[in-house]
Amino acid sequence: MPSPPDFTDDFRSELITLLRWRRDVRRFEPTALPEGTLERLLELASMAPSVGLSQPWRFVVVESLKRRTAVRDCFERCNAEALTRFSGERAALYARLKLAGLDEAPCQFAVFADRTTRQGHGLGRMTMAATIDYSAVMAVHTLWVAARAEGIGMGWVSILDATEMAEILDTPPEWTLIGYFCLGYASEEHDMPTLERECWEHRRPPVVIRR
Fold first, then answer.
1. CA 37, 38, 43, 47 torsion: positive or negative?
2. How many CB atoms lie within 10 A of CB 63?
3. Could you say which of 2, 31, 117, 128 is the most buried, measured as most Cβ atoms within 10 Å of its Cβ?
4. pLDDT by residue, tens only, the chain of 211 residues
């Protein structure tokens, strides 16, 4: 049995710094990632925990200009509709927010969860089926942190119609959209979330209930 690593105080301090600087990036440089970078990051993402070792994440890398344009059109429609749900100063603030890096990010991909996968033999999800989706989210977070450690930014685009996205990307009906992601080098760096800097919302302490 291999010996566990000894994580030092310096490592833990750097890990906190990494988590603090993991930002939802919206502004990218058009510079392409080095060859093989995305594939390597996707391999790291697949080290994430998953219910029953099901590994239900499915990555759809979007390189086609036609499909990227369709994704952007979908975002624009959904974003315009979302704007109508706000009024007054909140609507004005929403309209000013940059909520996607679809025009600049050199690398774009969608993450889906395959709820029908036989891998894992159903262990752990018979009573909580949503753990399949949660597992895919864990892969997203693992990729996000791994990318940040290499100075690569990532942004999550969720203002999209899931049914339309499945049609655009021609994915199986049993796959559930988790999100659409932009990956690349950030054109600006911040240790504070954009939505906090723009006064949309503020980070709050965790809600903890003891029984």
1. positive
2. 9
3. 117
4. 888 899 999 999 999 999 999 999 999 999 999 999 999 999 999 999 999 999 999 999 999 999 999 999 999 999 999 999 999 999 999 999 888 889 999 999 999 999 999 999 999 999 999 999 999 999 999 999 999 999 999 999 999 999 999 999 999 999 999 999 999 999 988 888 888 898 889 999 999 999 9
